[in-house]
Amino acid sequence: MKTLSGIFTILGKNLPDYEERPQQITMAEEVFRCLTKEKNLLIEAGTGVGKSFAYLIPAIISGEKTIVSTSSLALQDQLVKKDLAFLSRVLPQKFSYDLLKGKNNYLCRKRLSDYEGTGKTYERFIKWMSKTKKGEKGELPFIPRFWSEVCCDSQDCNGKLCPFYEECFYYRHYRKLHKADILVVNHHLLIYDLLSDFNVLPFHKQLIIDEASDVDDVIATVLGSTISHSRTSWMLYRLRSLKIIVDHLFPAADLFFRKKAVIPSRPVFPVPPPERERLKKFREELALKKTVSTLKKNKKDAVDEEMKDRIETTIR
Q1: Residue 271 CB coordination number (10 Å)
Q2: How much is the pTM?
Q3: Which terminus of the chain has a smaller tally of CB atoms within 10 A, N or C?
Q4: What are the counts of helices (DSSP H) followed by strands (DSSP E) for the chain?
Q5: pLDDT tens, 3-49?
């Protein structure tokens, strides 16, 4: 293909250490053929092939909106800050590109307003927050220990119903992504998009999945249920702030998570019988149905819109 050959010649002239690799050009030709004929393609490329350019260049010259999904933040940053930035400078074809990371990489104004922070680290964080335009974790010169309590959280997000929606860092960035020709995302966002009938990611005609071997683990994480000490503690503190009596549940939570047991670090199925019994007992102590019922009643009686929003996201 003369077009592809010409582009790789351009790379050789602009990359000092570039070496022509037949495998890279062959892969690029197959990817381009697949995209133009709207076919599916599975490729296993070894180290040193240069697969990033081998799929980015065909996607660019195809002229169609393309999503590139990867597993790691490191590869996402490399694609956007290095590979795509370089290609946008040297290729004759003009294109736009952008990056969408998971919600937990963006500061949430609503959760920050709920957080009661003190100390020098918190003061440094507030100073950063007052200047940042993106609210992105990667911009921070330091990562505070309380980041997980103030970042966006899919389970604690009310979307357009949130009083901070218009100025939300995540959604403000999200709203401009439909303009991007090449959009880089992670596997979690891709799977959530599939589950939502394609309502998470902007419209695209082409999909390229890199690091595809990690998709199985991501699907297990997205479709499974996760329970952790930090998440449970956060929920108890949230319920306490909503006037729900939960002080007696903190010892139960501490006992459940700190009791020595073999808890695997990766998702397992089925859950071992002893752990199922412990989960069942812990769930009974939490009395979730009664708590939700009380929250719904409190929401009806609430006058303040912000309080209604906090109750709604807590129930969800």
Answers
A1: 14
A2: 0.74
A3: C
A4: 16, 4
A5: 777 788 888 788 877 788 888 889 999 999 999 999 999 998 877 78
